[in-house]
Structure formats: structure tokens, C-alpha cells
């Protein structure tokens, strides 16, 4: 089935070139079907790249998905043209009365700030509170995961001595988890962050469950026991070239940056990266859409608060 995206979104050309069935809004209106409605709170500075990455993963399933991009009104994007934001994004105020099958909150390059120091923190807290009654399941990525764990459960983040940067090995700890169904026992995933979440802090919260972790990168996949919140501490959505771009950017700016671990063959930046995480990234998003969104969301989205109250542990 196709992914429905806003007419004219730059990601469309890339996805079509990859043989992903993209349906513009005007054609979707002619079909008698209710697609899964997925909101994306895109906090990344590279908004067009992130739009493409997430659209690619969400469009690689048999389910029809309709994407809506959301921006904060308390902070204006500085790395993306205003025309793009006006054409393809809505603000939280504009959708506050709406309901969604799923919501994604991306990472953001603000992790060295205290949460309360982030310009849009109060608005993001509003969105996270709203998601509890207006969204069936929310998928938090990297800093978005740290923000969600802090806001909902009081779990703080801790600064690392060195940036965690590269592709790291992870192990599945709950083999029968629906989120990780079909995963190999060991899988790879990208990370790019200066802060981390302590496992002991997560395990001290009975509503949360660690599904996968890494000796080097720490906890990776965390879910609330009712399945309505998913927290992923890495960036499984990253393209093959994303870490290279980040590395060259920081190197050229004279910032302290190591070659991303386990990324370039023989750690040689002159060579093309080896992609070792793509299959599991597709499976991660497919499982979330299938088990945590499609199979649990009510057909009438206005019934989400009722369904949420009755939700049980999906694992």
C-alpha cells in the first residue's frame, strides 16, 4: 500500500526512485479507505533529510499511511526555508483538537542543554501531554526519547565523556517482544549523541520495559508496558551517508570529533560506509506500525482515550 504525503514534498522524488509507492493527497481523496494517520514532530535541523528518512521507513509496509508534519510555534526553523515550512508543516495549535493513530517525536541537537533551557520545551511538554489522550502510540527518537522519559517518568539524562558516534552492536533482551519480532539476536543501529540514559533509572520505573541494549551504547529500545510509548535512543532511520555528513561537518568546523565507529571499512573515511542497520530499521518501524498502531488503534480515532484506558501490556 502507498504512503500518503503532502503534495510537492521533496521526499516524494527520492521515494519514487526507490520504488516506494507514494500517493499525493489529491489522489488519496478518491479512495474509500481510512489510512493510518501519523503525525511527525520534526525537531531535526535537517528537516528535508529527516522527512525522507522517516517516509522511507513508514512507506515500506502493506499499510496505507498518511503523514502530517508538525513544527513548534515557539521556535522557528533556521536551517530550512520558510517557504518549505509554510507549505508542508502545521503547528500544534492547529492540530490540538485532532487525533492520530501514531506520533513520532524526532531527535534534536539540544542535548547539552538542560531540558528546561530548550526554547520550545514548554510547547513540547504540551504535545507530549496531549499525546496521552489524542494518540494511540508515540514513537520517540534519540533526544526525543530522552525528553519523553524525563517528562513522563522523571528519568534524567547524563553527559558522556565522549560523543557516542557510530554503528553499535545491540542484543535483543525480550525475544517475544512484538516491537522486535523478527529481529536477529544481535543487530546494529546508529547513534550520534553526547548524553545517555542510565539503565538503572529505567528499571526503577515499573511501567517501563527495556527490550534491547548495547554494551557500548547502553539501553536502546524501551516501551511502556501498555505499548502506548516507545523510546529508541539511537537513529535507526539514518541514511547510509548521514554519519559521514555529520563527521565531515564537525571536522571541517574544527570541532572535536572521532571517526564514527564501525561505519567506514577499516575506519577509513575515504571509503564508502558499510550499511549494517537498514533491515532492522525497516523491521522496527513495520512492527511499531503493525502491532502498536494498526492492531490496537480504534477505527474511530475519537475513541482513543477509551482505548487507552483499557490498554494492556502488548508484549
How many beta-strand elements?
Answer: 12
The portion of residues forming beta strands comes to 25-35%
- Largest sheet at a glance? 12 strands, mixed
Mean pLDDT: 90
Description:
By secondary structure, this protein is α/β, with parallel strands linked by helices. It has a single domain (3-156, 195-233, 279-309), classed as Class I glutamine amidotransferase (GATase) domain (Rossmann fold), CATH 3.40.50. It is built from eleven helices and twelve strands. It has helices at 11-17, 25-28, 47-58, 82-88, 92-95, 121-134, 143-153, 199-203, 242-252, 278-294, 304-310; strands at residues 3-5, 22-24, 36-41, 65-71, 89-91, 100-105, 135-141, 158-172, 186-196, 208-214, 218-224, 229-232. Strands 1, 2, 3, 4, 5, 6, 7, 8, 9, 10, 11 and 12 form a twelve-stranded mixed β-sheet that branches. Helix 1 packs across helix 3 (47-58). The radius of gyration is 19 Å and the shape is globular. It starts with a strand and ends in a 5-residue tail after the last helix. Mean pLDDT is 90; it is low at 28-32.
Secondary-structure map:
Blueprint: E1 3-5, H1 11-17, E2 22-24, H2 25-28, E3 36-41, H3 47-58, E4 65-71, H4 82-88, E5 89-91, H5 92-95, E6 100-105, H6 121-134, E7 135-141, H7 143-153, E8 158-172, E9 186-196, H8 199-203, E10 208-214, E11 218-224, E12 229-232, H9 242-252, H10 278-294, H11 304-310
Parallel strand pairs: 1-2, 1-4, 3-4, 3-6, 4-5, 6-7, 7-12
Antiparallel strand pairs: 8-9, 8-10, 10-11, 11-12
Helix pairs in contact: 1-3
Amino acid at each position: 500500500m502507498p504512503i500518503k504525503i503532502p503534495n510537492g514534498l521533496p521526499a516524494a522524488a527520492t521515494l519514487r526512485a526507490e520504488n516506494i509507492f507514494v500517493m499525493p493527497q489529491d489522489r488519496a481523496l478518491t479512495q474509500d479507505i481510512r489510512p493510518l494517520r501519523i503525525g511527525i514532530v520534526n525537531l531535526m535541523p535537517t528537516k528535508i533529510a529527516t522527512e525522507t528518512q522517516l517516509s522511507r521507513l513508514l512507506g515500506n509496509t502493506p499499510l496505507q499511511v498518511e503523514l502530517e508534519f508538525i513544527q513548534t510555534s515557539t521556535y522557528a526553523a533556521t536551517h530550512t526555508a520558510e517557504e518549505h515550512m509554510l507549505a508542508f508543516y502545521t503547528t500544534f495549535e492547529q492540530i490540538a483538537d485532532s487525533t492520530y493513530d501514531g506520533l513520532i517525536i524526532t531527535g534534536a541537537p539540544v542535548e547539552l542543554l538542560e531540558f528546561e533551557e530548550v526554547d520550545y520545551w514548554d510547547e513540547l511538554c504540551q504535545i507530549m501531554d496531549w499525546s496521552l489522550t489524542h494518540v494511540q502510540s508515540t514513537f520517540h527518537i534519540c533526544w526525543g526519547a530522552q525528553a519523553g522519559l524525563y517528562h513522563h517518568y522523571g528519568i534524567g539524562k547524563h553527559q558522556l565523556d565522549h560523543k557516542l558516534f557510530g554503528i553499535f552492536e545491540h542484543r535483543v533482551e525480550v525475544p517475544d517482544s512484538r516491537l522486535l519480532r523478527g529481529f536477529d539476536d544481535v543487530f546494529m543501529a546508529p547513534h550520534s549523541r553526547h548524553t545517555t540514559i542510565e539503565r538503572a533509572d529505567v528499571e526503577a520505573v515499573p511501567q517501563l520495559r527495556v527490550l534491547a541494549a548495547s554494551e557500548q551504547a547502553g539501553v536502546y529500545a524501551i516501551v511502556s508496558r501498555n505499548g502506548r510509548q516507545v523510546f529508541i535512543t539511537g537513529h535507526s532511520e539514518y541514511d547510509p551517508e548521514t554519519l559521514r555528513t555529520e563527521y565531515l561537518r564537525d571536522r571541517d568546523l574544527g570541532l572535536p570529533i572521532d571517526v564514527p565507529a564501525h561505519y567506514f571499512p577499516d575506519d577509513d573515511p575515504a571509503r564508502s560506509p558499510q550499511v549494517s542497520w537498514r533491515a532492522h530499521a525497516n523491521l522496527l518501524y513495520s512492527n511499531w506500525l503493525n502491532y502498536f498502531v494498526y492492531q490496537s488503534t480504534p477505527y474511530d480515532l475519537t475513541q482513543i482515550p477509551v482505548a487507552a484506558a483499557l490498554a494492556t501490556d502488548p508484549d
